[in-house]
Write a structure and sequence with these properties.
The complex is a heterodimer of chains A (478) and B (460). Chain A contains ten helices and 23 strands. Chain A is of the alpha+beta class and 478 residues long. Chain B is of the alpha+beta class and 460 residues long. Helix content of chain B is 23%, strand content 37%. Classes of the chains: A alpha+beta (478), B alpha+beta (460).
Chain lengths: 478, 460
Amino acid sequence: MTHFDAASAAVEAALAAGARYADARVMHRRRESMQARNGEVQDLTQHEDAGVGVRALVGSSWGFSAVPDLANGGAATAGAAAAAIAAASAMVPGPAADLVPATPITASWASPCEIDPLSVPLSDKGDLLVAATAAMRESGADHAEGLYQVWDTRKWFVSSEGHRIDQHIRECGGGISATVIGDGETQRRSYPAERGQYGTGGWERMAELDLRKQAERVAEEARALLTAPVCPEDVTTVILGSEQMALQIHESVGHAIELDRILGWEAGFAGTSWLDLALLGKLHYGSELMNITIDPTIPGGLGSFGFDDEGTPAAARYAVRDGIWVGVLAGRDSAAVAGLDYGGSVRADGWARLPMVRMTNVGLLPGPHSLDEMIAATDDGVFMDNNRSWSIDDRRLNFQFGCEIAFQIKNGRLGPMLRNPSYTGIGPVFWRSMDMLGSETITWGTPNCGKGQPSQTGHTGHPAAPARFTNVRIGVRG
Amino acid sequence: MTSHVNLAQQVLERVRAEAGPGADAEVTIEDITLGLTRFANSFIHQSVEDTSALVRLRLHLDGRTASGSTTVGDSAGLAALVSRTVAAARLCPPDPLWPGLAGPAPMTVGSEADPAIAAATPADRAARVRAFVDAAGGLQTAGYCSTMLWMLTFANSAGQVAEASTADAVLDGIARDLGADGSTRLSTRRLSELDGAVLGARAAAKARAGVDPVELPPGRYEVVLEPTAVLDLVKNMGVFGFNGKAVHERRSFVELGQAQLDPAITIVDDPVAADAAALPFDFEGTPRRRLTLVDRGVCVALPHDRRSAARAGTTSTGHAVPGGAVWGPFAPNMALLASANGASRPAEVDGPAADAAVADLVASVGRGLLVTDNWYTRVLDPRTLVLTGLTRNGVWLIENGEVTRPVQNLRFTQSYPQALAPGAVLGVGSHAVPVPFGWGSMRAPALRLASWNFTGNASG
């Protein structure tokens, strides 16, 4: 039995059990991660999983069932179970449910990959992390840590509407960090980001990071932070580096434009959104410099794919255009409820999880300025970069971020390093204050976006450039 | 011998055949059957069931260590797991700190998993959701009901073999009234204790009491934290503080033997408590027992796995978890002890306080805030354990022992150990509530604290 056969058997069983729509994903995933600390490999884990997840719509109620058994009739059993679960869901029924129309697709897609990351010798990978962490340790880090992670995912999707799609997605990345222990506190510097930098692609993504070259600087900056002045409490102009901007976008735009949150489907856990569908196309989300796209077609983006987990082809669209909110992240069912005509942003974290609305690549289009121009144009302010902590309310309005490092800006020049920088604000107020935006974007990858019950971990991409904001409250502390 | 023990022994046999008799090997099989029914806008919009058996292999071969796992449990899948892990171990750098395997040891007898949870159907969960929705009296509701059967099988090449199971049922929901959310949640080991009507009515009472909240200026306020908010303190102190590895690396606030917390605070990790969703051994096969972490304000012990214990010159306390080589050990059944040990639950009350035990603490406050939940809390610095986060699902102003008005959500930036420092705890609730927590279960009572640092409000 092929994987397509198993998925088809699941769908047919769901239909036979009363479903009016069903889809199934057979998935086979391999994951490898290595972590090194102070010049020694601390952990190496290799994981493999495989199974089938089936979604069934009975009347207006959904059910989902997943099993690891791809032989012996397991897929068919899961299909029938999904329909039975949907029937039980009708004990607490909702409004009529439907799906926006889709054209059945038969297709195959693979992410670009120059060097298969699972074929690179473990000894080479270990040597890379050992060398980088040893160098950080020698340069003053109390805890010098490095990691890489690799995901290799194959999926076979079949729907009762005639979809038949297989995809092979490889993702890879990593990074290093140095922690120093001071008198009652710790300081940390990372490269290129707190949890590393990730994207679709092969080992070439890790190689281009050149971790060893950055090791000494990272450790020395962490050590220097211990004696740097504390970021003052103030309301001032803030320039954010692109890595911090990526998380700012993720938390205060990406999650806010998820249609399931807007519709209240996540109210009990992840939360809702401050956005009201009645204002779609009218609301001033930010300044005119703010152009945010939803684009799973970006080569190398961690949120890139050929088709989402409902079989919708990847396509780019605006979420915010010239500062106006114009688009959402949607699935076929949530779009139908909202009266929209597009889905395309539904994914599942493996075969055992229900597909749900997730970010793809959500990020800023480039602006007209360089970072140097922004600094030169700032008389009094602070430059911050590299996220250290993040928190935002359940409507995605009130945020507070901590960064690893900051520098004072005086009279158009970078001044002394500052430690424990943080800033806080309200999403739309903050975005409307963006008055300068960088021209060079980096598509940052976030491999740890949590959502859903049971919990799912999503992989998202965020094109981001440095940007300047005015009247920002900084220096919040306990 | 169960099928899972047999499967684990088969993996060990494959390791012996492929790597020789000198390899240290341990196998765990984590078999989870999960049913979870979510509701929003007062209807069930997602309902899922899945089963999976994850086989983990950790191997120490010729001084080198590697781990692997798979859900592909057929002969080919297990053979691939062993081959992959043996090959990885041979290529890894030496691991001089390998602590060796746990030897055979008797287990504490764990309590039996509730057969009703093991047999729960989607309709059983839907019925509890139905009761919750109906009890909310027309308010919009959202949340979930879950049933989970968790079985862990362990075998290693030193001869330790163990198997146990536990079960947990959860109902966690909110009611919504004019933008005000009220929440309740309960984690229990008995499906029969999951009463959707009681929980739905409580959530609705909270929501109605939260309508038309006022905005208060940021600042330090005396607070009564409900058990759901206290759990956040316990959990974060567990992850970042009561962690043998973090203490060894000087990343933790904990100093053993020091009176760092108020004498009213005693924290234990208790896998044998009647209401704990717990297993009697850890992921290294070490038996678990009740461990007192904080005794009347004094930090007296730390959770350890074998690796952190070896570095600290002590023995494992049975707190090994997957990924522990990086993150360190973790205590999954922490409980902050209540001021009384009554078996009966406190009475329901009509108002925003979760129950009579919370209301008793409110009655003693001159001016302060009643907080239901902490939300999206993140660590600014692990050593001082300063976190920022927000309130959620209901905040109220307390004046002269009475709840006087609802308050808009506030942001806080607060060191958790400082909030519980000597002299800072003005009251401990009389009843500890088991609260859902992903990997295990935790218990906490309400706390009355002298000061909580609110650093922002709805305006920013």
